[in-house]
Design goal:
Low-confidence stretches: none
Radius of gyration: 24 Å
Number of helices: 6
Mean pLDDT: 82
Helix content: 55-70%
Order of helices and strands: HHHHHH
Structural class: mainly alpha
């Protein structure tokens, strides 16, 4: 055993300064707790919108007014009743909330597991499939994919109300969505290159 190794583990003790710097990772904990609170806000918003949609279908005037105000677009004729397009827009809004909520879960769980502390969920029946091999690169690809899904929902909502927007706005939103797609592909390709390089380094010569 080397002089600077501990007799129990045989490993070198961590330098006090290095240990202090490493412990600062717990400063991220309040950030993840804040994201959990944001998740609660989204859950509350989801149920408010869903209850108003159900209430509007059942004839509640207050709920109907809220739904119509939510889907109305400035500069266009405000809808006066529920129809297929109105319901579709509300449902797309609910899906949007769910996808953002999924994004929050990936950031909270994956970020905590990667940057703060292990959760030791191996063998747990509800462990997310992606969490077993999560790292910073995988998390970036997952987040990019989730952002593309959210962007797709917003773009679809815009196309449903295409008459309310000018051509420049439609092209701009489509261009932004394409940028998200290209960025996600670039991130995934970069991750693939890095993974392949690491695998070649680990292979015995």
């Amino acid at each position: 055993m080397k002089p600077d190794e501990t007799p129990i583990t045989g490993k070198k003790p961590i330098n006090p300064l290095a240990n202090f710097i490493f412990m600062t990772r717990w400063l991220q904990l309040p950030l993840y707790l804040g994201l959990i609170l944001a998740q609660c806000v989204y859950v509350f918003h989801f149920w408010v919108e869903l209850s108003d949609l159900i209430g509007a279908v059942l004839g509640n005037e207050k709920a109907l007014k809220h739904i119509l105000d939510a889907v109305a677009i400035d500069g266009t004729i405000r809808p006066t009743k529920l129809n297929e397009t109105t319901i579709m827009l509300v449902v797309l809004g609910l899906i949007d909330v769910v996808m953002i909520s999924n994004l929050l879960i990936m950031v909270i769980v994956g970020g905590y597991e990667t940057f703060v502390s292990r959760m030791n969920l191996e063998g747990h029946p509800d462990q997310p499939e992606w969490l077993s091999h999560v790292n910073a690169s995988v998390l970036k690809v997952k987040l990019a994919t989730a952002i593309i899904g959210i962007s797709s929902i917003h773009l679809l909502k815009t196309f449903i109300n295409a008459k309310a927007y000018d051509e420049k706005t439609l092209l701009a939103q489509t261009g932004i969505h394409v940028v998200f797609l290209v960025s996600a592909l670039a991130i995934a390709y970069s991750d693939r290159i890095m993974s392949g390089t690491q695998d070649r380094i680990k292979q015995p010569h």
